[in-house]
Amino acid sequence: MGWKTEDVILRPPLDDADPLAEGVRIIGIGGTTRRSSGTERVLAHALGGAARAGAETKLLGSEALDLPLYGPGVAEVSARVRRFLSAVRRADGVIVASPGYHGTISGMIKNALDYLEELSDEERPYLEGRGVGCIALAGGPQAAVATLDTLRTVAHALRGWPTPFGAALVASHSLFDGSGEVKDAKAAMQLELVGHQVVEMAAMQRQAQLST
Ligand SMILES: Cc1cc2nc3c(=O)[nH]c(=O)nc-3n(C[C@H](O)[C@H](O)[C@H](O)COP(=O)(O)O)c2cc1C
Description:
Blueprint (H helix, E strand, L loop, with lengths): L4 H5 L15 E6 L7 H15 L3 E5 L18 H12 L2 E7 L7 H8 L16 E8 L2 H17 L3 E2 L4 E4 L14 H26 L2
Parallel strand pairs: 1-2, 1-3, 3-4, 4-5, 4-6
Helix pairs in contact: 2-6
The structure holds flavin mononucleotide (FMN).
């Protein structure tokens, strides 16, 4: 008996969105400096999924992530660094999207995540207690899967909770339409699910706080 990916990842209708998810803040960190970065576009799609599940979303793409090389204790406190850290601090959940570069996450994404060391002494350090949706986009499946694994490892190291479902996508002409929207139905569903799961985790956190 066979099964289809669609059977596994189809979600309940959006009308069923948890009221506790309303207004949770989900940020997207990802992209490349390439014009019309595919990584940024798949991230935008996943954030759309989060928005449809009730979240307020914000995408931090290559411009926001164009940060100086991080060094412990010498983080240059530029306005851009401050904005980046403040967005992470305020977030109830995060979606990280990286291209596969030479078999793993790109330097730009790793550098941005290294900046979270600056949040180590906070009441809610790093990404503690927050859902982290992970998305990888690469030229081939091996790099996509390896990149997804690395994103999950980094999310764990930052005390975040990688969502059960992560998306490992292969860049191809059929992934996007002419206007840059994700047109591949399976990829679109996977990205939507990542967005939903981050919001679900944020709603669970709210529920837990209400019951304490
Ligand atoms: C420096 C560099 C290294 C790359 N390394 C790999 C790789 O090891 N494996 C792979 O499948 N694709 C690799 N690629 C292809 C990218 O993962 C792919 O083009 C991805 O879609 C880029 O994302 P973007 O559209 O957001 O720029 C590499 C691309 C670049 C620029």
